[in-house]
Amino acid sequence: MSAPAPNFAHLIRLTDDTGLFEHARLAVVRREHGYCTDDVARGLVVTSRETDPSADLLRLSECYLTFLNHAQSKTGAFHNRLGHDRRWEDRAGLGDWWGRALWGLGTAAARHRSPWIRDSALTAFRLGTSQRSAHPHAMAFAGLGAAEVLRAHPGDADAAALLADAATAVGPPGADPRWPWPLPRLTYANAALAEVVIADAAARADDAALDTGLRLLTWLRDVQTGPHGLRVVPAGGWARGEERADRDQQPIEVAALADAFATAAAVTGDPAWQADLDRTVAWFLGANDADAVMWDERTGGGYDGLTPYGPNLNQGAESTLALLSTLQHARTAVPV
């Protein structure tokens, strides 16, 4: 499908010499909210995917890699929140930010055009693999980083072990075909859980596990499809038996689906997954419940959510990176 090229102007605007600011009022940075490892790691994923990065994007990658190294403790855990005063506001831990940090580092280690960034990212990634999180989402994000490393370094035992443990952490599918999801509730970035199962199955050439991952992703796609395009689970989540709200829909949900569809397409070669990927791009371009464009063409920023009153026009880091990563997939997708 026809899609705009990724515009990194707003990502550059959100980044200073320390890291990536989390929030914005419209397109203006809100420095008082500081930085978080979650967003910096996502930023490193996006900049590392660029095959011909500009000097500005190389600077962003260096900044994000430095931030993650600073955030990492000697145990391999990570701090998450850094104030604008450059002081950590939390203890190093193993929440989602640990998983996303390993995802960013793994992607940089496997894909970045700069050899020194690849080497430095791999060193930090390997330190992080000494840990395991009790949270399935954190493990899924870490597993996606491990899958990236394995594509570049097929014999990496630490990455293989982390990927296998991440797929196990997702849990087995439910017995009820009306709710096969392994968890009782859909929350956030749900597709990452199906994606890591698919990635692990592909790495081990396990057809049965691949079928399971694809079945989970198919169900997730189907329950997040509305009459006007994707209708992703709102910020409050959804469990079977609950009345499901159709807003506040978050761009991160759409981006997670795009990542998973791209992985499914690469693993299976099935063009139907490419068509699903097109639908994630279309959501940002207006094929959603509000017929609303979900980004600002003037700034390059992604809007923070789809509310009952239309887009939330603030352009924070998470939503901007969700837009950029989805458009990256659109640029590299094979036409169907």
Automatic annotation (TrEMBL):
GO terms for biological process: carbohydrate metabolic process. The keyword Transferase applies. It comes from the Bacteria. This is Glycosyl transferase. It comes from Catellatospora citrea. GO terms for molecular function: transferase activity. InterPro entries: 6-hairpin_glycosidase_sf (IPR008928). Keywords: Transferase.
